[in-house]
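sanity check this chain:
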Amino acid sequence: MNQKQNQSQAATTLLAALRADMRAAVDPKHRDGERAFFKEPINPLGVRVRDLNAIVALHWKEARGLAPRKLLDLCDELWRSGVFEEPVVASKWCGRALKKLDSEVAFATFERWLATRVDNWGHCDVLCTKCLGGLFERAPGLLPRSDTWLTSPNRWLRRGAAVALTPAARHGLHLARVFHVAEALLQDEDDLVRKGYGWMLKEASKPWPGEVLAFVLAHRERMPRVALRYAIELLPKDWRAQAMQTPWK
């Protein structure tokens, strides 16, 4: 058996073991709760987060042994499955594998998943925080490639443009980019997009509280209420009161 066949067999074995472990961890009560939690229709097995994280870690040794292209192919299959937990596994594995993935190939793959596979905020957020967020920290030159997302009719691309910046914002990186994205999405009509950039600003307020307050004060007359409340959540109480003195939408 040649190396390519070995890799294919390893991926097939890994996928079977992963799915068997997920089926063994199913909690029907949790499955019903997940379905009620999302406005969008989802198809969960019902694996609790702590159990899914344990399964991700358990099989990471085999996953990281795959060649980069084979790992992405396997994760692509997980994204196509229609089972809610499987794209979560794919995103967490790809996030762990960023060092071995070619940045250009990774970006193209992650962007494709965001544009064509994501259909709920849970998948949007795990893909953007675990994969795209880490990629943008490692390869900031890719950030301008997400500019087209800001005006896309696809709500997940617009939300993703902000959510993918939350790791960098939390770590004190790319403040100018954070404000660029927030300004572009400031009056977006979609509530999930508003919450997404509000979350990004909240993360930015950890290393840059004064700068975020100044941004909010400059834009509060046009900033929707939900985005403003997210953005100022971690600021000092008197700063929050100052930010909310002017009526909002």
